[in-house]
Please model this.
Amino acid sequence: MSVEDIIGSALLKERIGIDDVVALLSAKGAEAEAVKEAARNTRDRMFGDRTFVYGFVYFSTYCRNDCAFCYYRKTNSLRRYRKSADEIVALSGSLKDAGINLVDLTMGEDPVMCADGHRTMRDVVRRVKEEVDIAVMASPGAMDETSFKPMSEAGADWFACYQETYNRDLFSKLRLEQDFDRRLSQKTWAREAGMLTEDGMMVGLGETVRDRADSILRMGALGCEQIRAMTFVPQEGTPMSGTSASTSDDELMSIAVMRLLFPDRLIPASLDVEGIAGLRTRLDAGANVITSIVPPKMNLAGVAQHELDIDNGHRSVHHVLEMLDAMGKRAATCGEYNESVSKMKSKVRIGD
Ligand code: SF4
Model:
């Protein structure tokens, strides 16, 4: 089938096989633009002019793992920080006041926060929920199965855990000494506990186009309400620091294809890869959520780009809202966002 025919099939909700997904991801020039245009129109049909905006609070950069691609791997020598619960609540409150819909509470697998079934992290989630009253995404890395129900009861609306790739060999080279199936189960356990889930893949880590197609189909089939693609950025001090940096082209095609295949999912445009400069291209590819908004001057880091556009304020809520306005879009109100969350939650299977 031609790219045009595959787009037509996707719009008619016909089943798209992996060969067709590879063809969409491989489209170039005018065909690539047609894929993005169809994705953009699909996003607008599903979500109108509303864009969801997420704040990012990377509250602990300590980690017990040694992922080959990550700046915060335990063997990289760097100055780390862990924010107090009071600081996290205050940061979340200021994000909400500025117009953010959700606060993403992210950490490395910090042994202090993970101890005793993630009790300290859970206490932070509970306090943010009670004192700030905002939607919360918990991004603590991988947890034991028994920790999910308490995390949900503490108030986490979402649980995010990125597989990065569904190619098991590649996974073993990236997430060193971590179990593929345990990480995959995170999404299932979170759903069984009543939370919405986010999965993600990284682009430019040595995967093939077919690997990317497979990851997209698998993330979608898993039922995650939010799915993402992010370009790998080589990090200093890691075994992959010498890897050539990719352009964002493959990420943009992945965003567009995810939108065409899974029209109702939330798909982020992350500021963590190219900062504010990459916002328009990601929204033009069909994204409907802006993630990684970080308040300036708070000594907070990003993940893929640990400093990019943070202290100059370009990743602040104010700056992002101005950009949205210039693009004819608007940030959703918290009421609109919470309504979407409630609808999605009503469809999540609750475990016993
Ligand atoms: S990707 Fe996450 S789990 Fe892996 S080293 Fe980095 S912070 Fe730790």
Q: What stands out?
A: The pocket of iron/sulfur cluster is lined by residues 63, 65, 67, 70, 72-73, 108-109, 141 (CB under 6 Å). Strands lie at 50-60, 102-107, 135-139, 158-160, 196-203, 226-231, 268-270, 289-293, 330-331. The two ends are 45 Å apart (CA to CA).
